[in-house]
Amino acid sequence: MKTPSASIPANFAWARLVPELLVADLDRSLRFWRDLCGFQVAFDRPEDRFAYLDLDGAQVMLEQRGLGRNWVSAPLEVPLGRGINFQVGVHSIQPILATLQAAGWPLFMQPERKWYRTGSFETGVEQFLVQDPDGYLIRFSAPIGERAAG
C-alpha cells in the first residue's frame, strides 16, 4: 500500500454514491482492485486498513473487517455482497480483461455485447463480470452506442 497521502489529489472529484466494502485482507483486495482492475488509491489510512479508490470517477472504499468501526448488519458469509453487482463504466473493457487473463483470474461472466432499452432508445454495452477476492460482483461496462428501440 502506498504512503499515506498528505492531501487528496487536486483533480479529484467526490462521487455522490460510494460503496464501502468490508474485505478480509486489504492487501489482497488492493492487488485485485488496483493492480488488476486499474483503480488508483486516491487516499488511504494504513493504520485503519482503509483505502479510497478511484477509476475515472468510479469510486469504492475498502476497509479490512474486524478492525476499527465496521457497520455490520448481519453475519458476513462469503461470497459477500449477494444480490448486488457494482457496475463500473470504463472506456474499454479490453485492458482490464487482458490484465485479469494474464493473472489467471476467473471471470464470473464472459464478455458480451448487450443492448438495454433506455426509454425510446437502446443503449449498447460491452461488458463482463468478475468477483473480487471476497466475492463482490463487479460488472465492467463500456459503451458501444445508441439506437432506436424496437
Compute the separation of the termini in Å. 49 Å
The H-level CATH homologous superfamily, spelled out, is 2,3-Dihydroxybiphenyl 1,2-Dioxygenase, domain 1
State the shape: globular
Number of helices, counting only DSSP H or I runs of 4 residues or more: 2
Low-confidence stretches: 1-6
- In percent terms, what proportion of residues is strand? 35-45%
Total strands: the figure is 8
Which CATH architecture?
Answer: Roll
Structural class: mainly beta
Strand order of the largest sheet: 1-4-3-2
CATH topology: 2,3-Dihydroxybiphenyl 1,2-Dioxygenase, domain 1
Q: What is the total domain count?
A: 1
Order of helices and strands: EHEEEEHEEE
How does this structure look, described?
- This protein is mainly β.
- It has a single domain (20-68, 84-148), classed as Roll (2,3-Dihydroxybiphenyl 1,2-Dioxygenase, domain 1), CATH 3.10.180.
- It has 2 helices and 8 strands.
- The chain has helices spanning 26-36, 94-102, and strands at residues 20-23, 40-45, 50-55, 58-64, 85-89, 109-118, 121-131, 137-148.
- The strands form 2 sheets. The chain has a 4-stranded mixed β-sheet with strand order 1-4-3-2, with helices on one face.
- The protein is globular.
